[in-house]
Amino acid sequence: MKKCIQDISKVELHCHLDGSISSDLIKQLAAEQQIALIEENLIVSESCESLDEYLQCFDEILKVLQTADSLKRAVVDVVKQAESDNVKYIEVRFAPMLHMEKGLGLTEIFEAVEAGVEAAIATTGIKVNLLVCAMRQQEATVNTALFDYLQQRDSQFVCGIDFAGPEAPFPPNTIESQIEHGVNKGFNLTLHAGECGCMHNVMESIRLGAKRIGHGVAINRDELALQEVKAQGILLEMCPKSNIQTKAIRDLSDLNLSYLLKEEIPFLINTDNRTVTQTSLNEEYELLLQHNLITLEQIETINKNAIDYAFLSDSERRYIKSNLMS
Ligand SMILES: [Zn+2]
């Protein structure tokens, strides 16, 4: 039996690169690039009322993430933070189209981020993969061209795709053909859905081929929908602190963890955005422990089970299970 959260080997499947780069590195990059940042805009305000408001923090952070050097260093920085949470496998997600403001092209962006992954693996020993986010608010042709590029690049580190950004104005049916474009190319799909109260978006996302759902909390009180998720082998990537800040949930009881645990509905706890949300993975689990919503034993079990839902090849999965998750 593990004695504390830190002892438990963990998996993290929902962590955004831009929202998780540490405040220290953001400030360092801003100084180097002579960019004046409004520091209070980097983290979510206590009065945040919605996902749209939460997403505004990214505008400030993205100002310093427009060079190849900053992208590479950001990846190493985020993976090191995960290492201090005793994470053994992480899928870091990023949206290439948000790093083009100063002229970087897709190839330069991918070369920088992939170099960051290589450096992060070499320094930490953690297994790292990338999820590539299309942005819901982008033109359809931009997103489909991104998936075409991904197919051509065939990166050893890209393990799947996602659609991030404002969910309410861009529900799954409005981006259906773009989603299909990615799925038809054979990419593993996880989708942000059910973060703004709409249960229908979660079920639509599954219908469109999502193997995992980012957040999904809109269905957490609906036993029928949860049983459907279980039957289809879908994992819910939940991010409790972020969900409270965006008002996706009113409080932690809305996660309905006791039902999920009792019924063995697949889910995992994640940070979402370590800096914007001001959290770590250990902190997320501590919060749930303090409220008696989960036990250390259950935390160990959900992390071990999550490997089955990670976007890994069979051999990588076996390696992580037997070598990293003990
Ligand atoms: Zn997210």
TrEMBL record:
<dbReference type="InterPro" id="IPR006330">
    <property type="entry name" value="Ado/ade_deaminase"/>
</dbReference>
<dbReference type="Pfam" id="PF00962">
    <property type="entry name" value="A_deaminase"/>
</dbReference>
<dbReference type="GO" id="GO:0005829">
    <property type="term" value="C:cytosol"/>
</dbReference>
<dbReference type="InterPro" id="IPR032466">
    <property type="entry name" value="Metal_Hydrolase"/>
</dbReference>
<dbReference type="GO" id="GO:0046103">
    <property type="term" value="P:inosine biosynthetic process"/>
</dbReference>
<feature type="domain" description="Adenosine deaminase">
    <location>
        <begin position="10"/>
        <end position="324"/>
    </location>
</feature>
<dbReference type="GO" id="GO:0006154">
    <property type="term" value="P:adenosine catabolic process"/>
</dbReference>
<keyword id="KW-0862">Zinc</keyword>
<keyword id="KW-0479">Metal-binding</keyword>
<dbReference type="GO" id="GO:0046872">
    <property type="term" value="F:metal ion binding"/>
</dbReference>
<dbReference type="InterPro" id="IPR001365">
    <property type="entry name" value="A_deaminase_dom"/>
</dbReference>
<dbReference type="GO" id="GO:0043103">
    <property type="term" value="P:hypoxanthine salvage"/>
</dbReference>
<keyword id="KW-0378">Hydrolase</keyword>
<comment type="similarity">
    <text>Belongs to the metallo-dependent hydrolases superfamily. Adenosine and AMP deaminases family.</text>
</comment>
<protein>
    <recommendedName>
        <fullName>adenosine deaminase</fullName>
        <ecNumber>3.5.4.4</ecNumber>
    </recommendedName>
</protein>
<dbReference type="GO" id="GO:0004000">
    <property type="term" value="F:adenosine deaminase activity"/>
</dbReference>
